[in-house]
């Protein structure tokens, strides 16, 4: 058995991968770089990109509303970089740039055969911050050995086809701020740039719409299915209250079978399409939106939810929404057919 995907198309639908995703995937790397500004800047630009998907923050705030940067790349030829105006994100004194990575199209299991490491097996990030002061002087902060990294954060894995696991018990609130304790983090390894850098051309992928759940379906098989009424490339948001360590699983699909039961129509090795959220146990309830910095999975039009036994919750349509993405990305947003059932089963 090859857990990393099928060898060819003949094996595509016969290969079984029984190991759980946490045994197949690695935790997301978090990176931090501290730097000092002696004066308030009048202009600051951040140039950044990565092998894998990256999400950048400065002093606790995202540098952009873009997701999935740098996008789909021909990593063996060139690497696109993004440019962000971060003037208002900087402060006098100590600052922190934070970057979190996931496999994305570089190392993720996005191919039809489900294999990973299409371009490489080591995630990397590169950035350069150009700061200009009122007197005309400039300061450059570049990615180097002063940055530190850790894989002990709440994103336990994140893959475009497999899904995301987020453990809210790991409280890293403020992980990209100066007051966060990174004393246990390890220095990064510096490597040489492998290909030429080019400016990104296209429309960035952004959250453009929040789609409410249309209906909560109790299937004949006793499953709970959240129906969004359309096939969407996006992410589910929900609120839940339960004990610390309880788990909510969200499995994504597009149709029901002819009996009205959940039908997993996204088939093949490493096509789990399942998000896992482990509760922190907040007695006032908590929101899955806290994991929204995670580069993660594209969901379908219907979602099956499976709470841990003993987790007391009530599903209503109002607190469940899907954030739709749009941009220059191979994600399709199309209306579902009038029927929600699959004619083949």
UniProtKB/TrEMBL annotation:
Residues 218-286 form the Alpha-L-rhamnosidase concanavalin-like domain. It holds the Pfam family Bac_rhamnosid. Signal peptide: none annotated. Gene3D superfamilies: Galactose-binding domain-like. It comes from the Bacteria. Residues 42-208 form the Bacterial alpha-L-rhamnosidase N-terminal domain. This is Alpha-L-rhamnosidase. Residues 280-312 are annotated as: Disordered. It comes from uncultured Microbacterium sp.
């Amino acid at each position: 058995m090859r857990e990393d995907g099928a060898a060819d198309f003949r094996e595509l639908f016969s290969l079984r991968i029984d190991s759980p995703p946490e045994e197949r995937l690695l935790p997301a790397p978090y990176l931090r770089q501290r730097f000092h500004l002696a004066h308030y800047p009048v202009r600051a630009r951040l140039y950044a990109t990565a092998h894998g998907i990256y999400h950048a923050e400065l002093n606790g705030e995202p540098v952009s509303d873009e997701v999935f940067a740098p996008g789909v790349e021909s990593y063996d030829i060139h690497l696109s970089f993004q440019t962000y105006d971060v003037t208002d994100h900087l402060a006098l004194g100590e600052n922190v740039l934070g970057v979190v990575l996931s496999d994305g199209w570089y190392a993720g299991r996005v191919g039809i055969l489900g294999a990973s490491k299409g371009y490489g097996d080591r995630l990397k990030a590169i950035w350069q911050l150009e700061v200009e002061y009122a007197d005309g002087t400039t300061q450059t902060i570049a990615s180097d050995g002063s940055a530190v990294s850790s894989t002990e954060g709440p994103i336990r894995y994140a893959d475009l086809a497999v899904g995301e696991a987020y453990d809210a018990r790991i409280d890293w609130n403020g992980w990209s701020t100066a007051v966060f304790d990174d004393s246990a983090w390890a220095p990064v390894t510096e490597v040489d740039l492998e290909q030429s850098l080019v400016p990104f051309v296209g429309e960035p992928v952004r959250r453009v719409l929040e789609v409410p759940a249309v209906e909560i379906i109790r299937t004949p098989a006793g499953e709970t299915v959240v129906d969004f009424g359309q096939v969407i490339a996006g992410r589910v948001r929900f609120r839940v209250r339960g004990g610390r360590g309880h788990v909510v699983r969200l499995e994504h699909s597009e149709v029901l079978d002819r009996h009205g039961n959940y039908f997993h129509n996204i088939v093949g090795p490493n096509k789990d399409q399942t998000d896992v959220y482990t509760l922190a146990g907040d007695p006032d309830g908590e929101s899955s939106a806290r994991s929204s910095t995670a580069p993660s999975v594209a969901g379908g039009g219907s979602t099956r939810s499976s709470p841990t036994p003993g987790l007391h919750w009530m599903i209503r349509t109002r607190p469940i929404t899907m954030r739709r993405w749009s941009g220059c990305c191979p994600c399709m947003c199309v209306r579902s057919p009038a029927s929600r059932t699959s004619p083949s089963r």
